């Protein structure tokens, strides 16, 4: 009996010692886990407020580690956590420990808060309950949740794992079977890398469909035969800068892109929101085609990927080569007329005082002939008249040079057209504006509104542009529409429309996304990278047409430069001076006409003389 009692006593002592050793080992392991937790708290972004979920007696070890490391924290019961997740919107790091079978088997997703970071410590009790780690993946794959797995007896490190959402290839929904990903390792309380809360984004959709609504808007989207399309009609052959950006995103996500036609009022995008129903009910993942951030919080936005300026454009035309413009150009000719008059009067006075009888009319006549180079001066009979003639001949040479230079420049050098550089230049000019009545009051500016009230009405961008050409007016349009229109209307490689250097305003284009779509985060990230790299701008230029934009710049420079219309030599062609030959031909014809009249008059006079002689 005594032996039996001793045997049981020794067994109880050994069991007690064994429990003490196990608890001590567990405590040592947990202290190591706590060190890893402290490192995670220190490295977490923005050093968030730590909330320790009071879920058992072992919480004291976590609290001791926090206090020892001087990390600010608060403790909270599970029940209070459900209330706090609605009230606390700050950046929070929640620490949750699961160290018994009850916690492991009753784990639910409602303990996870969407905008918080979570660290869950899994102890060896979980292993004893035979709970598969994948059980947690069903609830946390889309949230910022990281697990610290307590090291085994034969291990000297802790694994840090998390779960990433995956797509089921057959159903194209979130997969129910998710494997944990080993993202970091903690050895003796030291992390091997800084990977703690990686972004939970699905980057491989395994060729699942990506439904995109396509709205025609130049140059973002071109739709073939758009007048025959109906809402949500599948389309093929659409192209444009937005389509190319969407294809890049679809390829990055490994999805199969499917495009559907969506009607949108391009002229006034603020009045047509019907297509948003297709986004809200899940029929479409995104809509592209030059959209704006004007739909509130109903949808998500891709971020700015393109900017377009609203600009004033106006019709221009070089002054035509006419005789009237030539006379206006030779605006200093009156000086020579003044000198010519003075010379004639002085010559007449000198001749009068010298006793030389000179006719004033003849003096003016011969002086004008000399000035034009078609007659000689009157004979000088005194030194005074010789000096006067010498100075007058010098002036005649200058006049010939002046007229020749003006004529040469008039026939070879083209002056630039009338240009406007600023918004105020347009509004202060006498040009009439042609604007769409439904959309012209988009700017809350008193001076602009007063100017817009005086404008004539036109229905569309296209009609407004055509109208300013025929009426020499001005209108507002988007920068993207300007290049093609300028190239289409250019004459002899010179622009007939120009734009101001000032912009009325700048509009920012963003694609719209379905709010609940899993693709949004990656979509926004890819579009922002493309924009920063300049690829969005390049695709926009390609859609407009690189050659069109280059030629547009060329015709603008041609219209604005005040240079020679020829490249070298600049010969004056017969067509440019054909008026002189017309004048000469008219003169010859008049001379012949006068000659005929004179001959007829002489012949008639001779007949009268002969008749008179015969009678006598």
From TrEMBL:
<keyword id="KW-0812">Transmembrane</keyword>
<keyword id="KW-0675">Receptor</keyword>
<keyword id="KW-0472">Membrane</keyword>
<dbReference type="InterPro" id="IPR052192">
    <property type="entry name" value="Insect_Ionotropic_Sensory_Rcpt"/>
</dbReference>
<dbReference type="GO" id="GO:0005886">
    <property type="term" value="C:plasma membrane"/>
</dbReference>
<protein>
    <submittedName>
        <fullName>(diamondback moth) hypothetical protein</fullName>
    </submittedName>
</protein>
<keyword id="KW-1133">Transmembrane helix</keyword>
<keyword id="KW-0325">Glycoprotein</keyword>
<keyword id="KW-1003">Cell membrane</keyword>
């Amino acid at each position: 009996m005594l032996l039996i009692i001793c045997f049981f006593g020794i067994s109880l002592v050994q069991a007690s010692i064994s429990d003490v050793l196990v608890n001590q080992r567990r405590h040592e392991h947990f202290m190591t886990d706590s060190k890893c937790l402290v490192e995670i708290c220190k490295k977490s972004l923005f050093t968030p407020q730590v909330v320790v979920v009071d879920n058992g007696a072992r919480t004291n070890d976590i609290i001791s580690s926090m206090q020892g490391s001087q990390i600010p924290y608060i403790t909270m019961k599970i029940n209070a956590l459900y209330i706090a997740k609605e009230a606390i919107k700050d950046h929070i790091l929640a620490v949750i420990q699961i160290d018994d079978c009850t916690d492991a088997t009753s784990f639910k997703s409602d303990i996870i808060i969407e905008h918080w970071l979570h660290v869950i410590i899994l102890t060896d009790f979980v292993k004893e309950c035979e709970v598969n780690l994948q059980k947690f993946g069903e609830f946390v794959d889309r949230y910022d949740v990281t697990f610290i797995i307590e090291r085994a007896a034969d291990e000297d490190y802790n694994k840090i794992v998390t779960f990433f959402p995956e797509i089921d290839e057959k159903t194209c929904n979130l997969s129910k079977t998710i494997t944990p990903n080993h993202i970091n390792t903690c050895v003796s309380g030291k992390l091997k890398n800084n990977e703690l809360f990686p972004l939970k984004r699905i980057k491989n959709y395994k060729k699942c469909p990506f439904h995109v609504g396509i709205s025609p808007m130049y140059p973002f989207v071109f739709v073939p035969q758009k007048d025959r399309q109906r809402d949500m009609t599948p389309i093929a052959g659409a192209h444009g800068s937005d389509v190319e950006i969407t294809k890049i995103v679809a390829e990055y996500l490994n999805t199969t892109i499917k495009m559907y036609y969506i009607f949108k009022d391009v002229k006034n995008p603020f009045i047509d929101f019907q297509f948003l129903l297709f986004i809200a009910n899940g029929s479409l993942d995104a809509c592209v085609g030059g959209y704006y951030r004007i739909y509130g919080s109903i949808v998500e936005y891709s971020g700015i990927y393109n900017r377009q300026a609203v600009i004033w454009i106006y019709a221009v035309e070089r002054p035509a080569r006419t005789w009237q413009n030539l006379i206006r150009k030779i605006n200093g000719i009156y000086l020579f007329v003044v000198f010519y008059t003075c010379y004639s009067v002085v010559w007449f006075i000198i001749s009068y005082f010298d006793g030389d009888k000179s006719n004033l009319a003849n003096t003016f006549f011969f002086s004008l002939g000399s000035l034009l180079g078609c007659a000689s001066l009157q004979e000088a009979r005194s030194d005074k008249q010789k000096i006067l003639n010498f100075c007058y001949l010098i002036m005649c040479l200058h006049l010939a040079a002046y007229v020749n230079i003006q004529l040469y420049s008039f026939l070879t050098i083209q002056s630039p057209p009338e240009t406007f550089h600023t918004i105020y230049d347009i509004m202060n000019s006498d040009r009439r504006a042609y604007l769409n009545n439904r959309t012209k009051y988009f700017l809350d500016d008193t001076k602009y509104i007063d100017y817009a009230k005086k404008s004539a009405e036109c229905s569309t961008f296209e009609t407004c542009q055509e109208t300013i050409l025929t009426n020499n007016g001005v209108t507002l349009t988007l920068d993207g529409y300007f290049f093609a229109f300028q190239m289409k209307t250019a004459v002899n490689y010179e622009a007939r429309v120009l734009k101001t250097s000032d912009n009325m305003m700048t509009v920012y284009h963003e694609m719209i996304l379905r709010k609940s779509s899993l693709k949004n985060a990656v979509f926004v990230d890819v579009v922002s990278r493309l924009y920063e790299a300049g690829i969005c701008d390049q695709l926009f230029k390609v859609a407009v047409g690189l050659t069109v934009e280059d030629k547009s710049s060329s015709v603008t420079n041609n219209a604005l430069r005040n240079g020679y219309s020829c490249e070298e030599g600049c010969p004056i062609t017969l067509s440019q001076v054909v008026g002189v030959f017309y004048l000469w031909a008219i003169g010859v014809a008049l001379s012949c006409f006068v000659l005929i009249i004179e001959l007829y008059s002489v012949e008639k006079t001779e007949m009268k003389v002969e008749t008179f002689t015969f009678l006598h």
